[in-house]
């Protein structure tokens, strides 16, 4: 399915009305079969990157999958190539799990024969161990169970590019592991490119080939200057791309401090994966220094009057 096409984001601008969230964001190209973890604190813009690539926001810049221009290609082409899983859980409707996954596949791949659709449905339910829930109604599932159904709706499409927004946020440890194994498998066996926003740094370190770390807008950050490839020397900047590269190049105490405002140690597991141990949250002045946006009481009152 994937013709060897890399995923590129170049000079991407995106935001909401007059609020600019991403400014000239460029990332190193991702190769087929790779898994990229999108990291950063709340509000850094991870969802905005994914929504921009899913064409859910007005954006400027370039997003390509090989030769395909994902921002301007016909909608059906985009649907065929990109599976997007939003942060919100599938709606708690009276649909059965099986119907909701089948419906997602039918809507996005009407070209597939019935037999192929059935085979994919069976495969995804088996892989995610969802068979016991197949005939249950969505409005009678727990939050984590519905999150797994959302993941199944995305996986069943077998798109060459998968964009997933915190797919493990509501899951227990076993389902977290099953989810990441299924994504890894999609990358390894089908050559899919998987881009996943996450808050669990240790899961990201263990499963992703490459990490992209975004900083909170309005905070003082460190960046390697133009290109922001992970590694010193760091220079001051505000928000945006802090670092990208292999997990051990990105998960470094000074970068975690700049991005999240935490003091952390980074150690190695027996399998040599990075393990982040958070010691404490920094106070705002410690974290942001002079870069913090302060809103004093008079200016807040003045804004309320407008
Ligand atoms: N619909 C919206 N309208 C206006 N501003 C928005 C909207 N959605 C998000 N934002 C703002 O855009 C910025 C980036 O938000 P985004 O949801 O991309 O962050 P995130 O990194 O995914 O955060 P989180 O980890 O909390 O999900 C934030 O400052 C947020 O307040």
From TrEMBL:
Keywords: ATP-binding, Cell membrane, Membrane, Nucleotide-binding. This is ABC transporter ATP-binding protein. Residues 7-241 form the ABC transporter domain. Transmembrane segments: none annotated. It comes from Verminephrobacter aporrectodeae subsp. tuberculatae. PROSITE patterns: ABC_TRANSPORTER_1, ABC_TRANSPORTER_2. GO terms for molecular function: ATP binding. SMART domains: AAA. InterPro entries: AAA+_ATPase, ABC_transporter-like_ATP-bd, ABC_transporter-like_CS, P-loop_NTPase. CDD domains: ABC_Iron-Siderophores_B12_Hemin.
